[in-house]
């Protein structure tokens, strides 16, 4: 699921939600977005939304998948903070001095 919203946003939850809150949010959204419930004209849109909701629930309801997702989410937010912090004057100073920002993969090659 490559989108800008997190799985928590899809279900309308905070990151600290417990299992009961996740299940309740899923059931509520599933009743509203299931393709068998909506009008005929909205079935395709509803089906796509239902797939996103089910994928979010599938990941967040499994403790191991959720732990991996939370770790990945934390890494993504940390990475975006580093990139946004280095996009200003510090980045131009680094570029003019001959240094560049390297990722983990390029560090392993040295």
UniProtKB/TrEMBL annotation:
Protein name per the record: J domain-containing protein
Domain spans labelled J: 6-73
Taxonomic lineage of the native organism: Eukaryota, Viridiplantae, Streptophyta, Embryophyta, Tracheophyta
Entry superkingdom: Eukaryota
Pfam families: DnaJ
UniProt cross-references to CDD domains, sorted A to Z: DnaJ
InterPro entries per record: Diphthamide-biosynth_chaperone, DnaJ_domain, DnaJ_domain_CS, J_dom_sf
Source organism of this protein record: Cannabis sativa (Hemp)
